[in-house]
Specification:
The chain is of the alpha/beta class. Strand 1, helix 1 and strand 2 form a beta-alpha-beta unit.
C-alpha cells in the first residue's frame, strides 16, 4: 500500500466483513493504515477483505467478536495489539448495540468516529 496519510495508524473496523464496513477497511488500508477487520459471524467474508488488502500490499487481520459483549471487545483490542502493537482508532459501522456499548463503557477509551488527528 502507498505511504498515505494513515501510515503507522492501526484501525479496528467493526462490521468490516461486508458492506460499508468492508469499504471503510479497504479505504483505510489504501491510505496506509493497518486494519483489524472485525466480524460477528461471517469469517469467510472477513477473510476475503483481508485477502484483498494484503494482495495490494496492505496489512490486515480478521478478528471475530460481538461488539455488544465487553469480553469480545477486550479480546478484539488485545488481538489488535498482538498483531500490530497498538490501536489508534476504533471505527464503527452503524449498529445500535455498538453505540449502546460505547455509552455504557467507562473503563475503555473508544474513538467512535473519524477524528481530524486520524485523517491528518
Amino acid at each position: 500500500m502507498k505511504n498515505g496519510k494513515l501510515t503507522d495508524k492501526v484501525a479496528v473496523v467493526t462490521g468490516a466483513s461486508k458492506g460499508i464496513g468492508a469499504g471503510i477497511a479497504k479505504h483505510l488500508a489504501l491510505e496506509g493504515a493497518s486494519v483489524v477487520v472485525n466480524y460477528a459471524s461471517s469469517k469467510t467474508d472477513a477473510d476475503k477483505v483481508v485477502d484483498e488488502i494484503t494482495k495490494r500490499g496492505g496489512k490486515a487481520v480478521a478478528i471475530q467478536g460481538n461488539v455488544a459483549k465487553k469480553a469480545d471487545v477486550e479480546r478484539l483490542f488485545a488481538a489488535s495489539k498482538k498483531a500490530f502493537g497498538k490501536t489508534t482508532s476504533w471505527l464503527t459501522t452503524p449498529v445500535s448495540t455498538t453505540s449502546n456499548l460505547l455509552k455504557r463503557s467507562r473503563r475503555m477509551n473508544f474513538t467512535a468516529s473519524l477524528t481530524p488527528t486520524f485523517l491528518g
